[in-house]
TrEMBL record:
Residues 264-298 are annotated as: Disordered. It comes from Cricetulus griseus (Chinese hamster). Residues 287-298 have a biased composition (Basic residues). It comes from the Eukaryota. InterPro entries: CLAMP. Pfam families: CLAMP. This is RIKEN cDNA 4930578I06 gene.
């Protein structure tokens, strides 16, 4: 308190809160502390700082603001470990002791302030300021990755042009995928057809061997030929249906590409440099020169 003067509390009030709290700590001659690890001392400093803000806000002279800080420190110290009834008694006695330091209006304001803050939350103050608290603090070192270096603006592309190219690429990819699906279906149906034919021929071998009569062999052979033709027609029908549908899909994709091409955004205007201006103006200059020469010949 020896360094806390009216000028000192005035400087504390004029600073922003972080700078003001630090300046107040030095004026109170408190040692430096970690705000996270020593929460008790941080709360005490906040309480003293808030009392300065209150007193200045109520119009206390700077000399009385110093007394408010002294009053706050003594009240916190003398009520440590007391019951709430004892704390109210201590507050009343201190107000009586300080009645010569303040006028009636400021004394009543000081009484209301500590009743509405300190006494109303007295149990919380006692829990934090009177009991040892176990602090579980975890410190994690997180590596921050800087964003990648952006490409030069000269390599950039207009947004509409980029979107147009993306849409064209998607349509081209879809067309290639349709053609690939047709080839895959052809291979699948070819393998399936071979498997079905092998199964059909294999299933008829035993009856043919068991039936030696020519009429039965001919009937079996006709049945095998008919079944083979049926299998081939079924596979061919499925393939033709898929190819027709794929052809329509590809035509639709090409129509979409053509529509997109017709509605493509215009390319950006090139930058006009002095050299280009000179080149563009040179034909005009040559024409004017030819006109002058023609007049001179006349």
């Amino acid at each position: 308190m020896a360094l806390l003067t009216p000028q000192g509390v005035k400087e504390v009030f004029q600073f922003q809160k972080p700078q003001g709290r630090e300046h107040l700590r030095r004026l109170l001659n408190w040692e430096e502390f970690d705000e996270l690890r020593d929460a008790r001392r941080s709360i005490l400093l906040d309480t003293v700082y808030d009392s300065i803000i209150f007193a200045v806000g109520k119009g206390f002279p700077w000399v009385e603001v110093v007394q408010v800080v002294k009053f706050t420190e003594e009240l916190l110290k003398e009520t440590k470990g007391c019951s709430i009834t004892e704390a109210v008694t201590v507050l009343g006695n201190k107000l009586r002791d300080y009645q010569k330091q303040f006028n009636v209006t400021h004394l009543l304001a000081l009484c209301d302030y500590f009743h509405n803050t300190f006494i109303r939350h007295y149990r919380l103050y006692q829990y934090v300021l009177s009991q040892e608290q176990e602090v579980n603090l975890t410190v994690a070192h997180v590596q921050m990755c800087a964003p990648p270096q952006p490409l030069p603006l000269t390599e950039g592309m207009d947004r509409d042009v980029w979107r147009h190219e993306q849409q064209m690429a998607e349509l081209s990819t879809a067309e290639v995928q349709k053609r690939t699906n047709v080839l895959l279906l052809k291979e699948t149906l070819s393998l399936e057809q071979a498997h079905m034919l092998q199964k059909a021929f294999g299933g008829e071998e035993a009856p043919v061997q068991l039936q030696p009569r020519p009429t039965l062999r001919r009937e079996a052979l006709e049945r095998l030929v008919s079944e083979a033709i049926h299998i081939q027609i079924a596979c061919l029908q499925e393939l033709l249906q898929y190819e027709i549908q794929a052809a329509f899909d590809i035509l639709d994709l090409r129509l979409q590409k053509k529509t997109l091409s017709l509605g493509a955004p215009p390319p950006p205007l090139p930058c006009i440099t002095s050299g280009q201006v000179a080149v563009e103006e040179s034909p005009k200059a040559s024409k004017s020169n030819k006109g002058k020469k023609g007049k001179a010949k006349k």
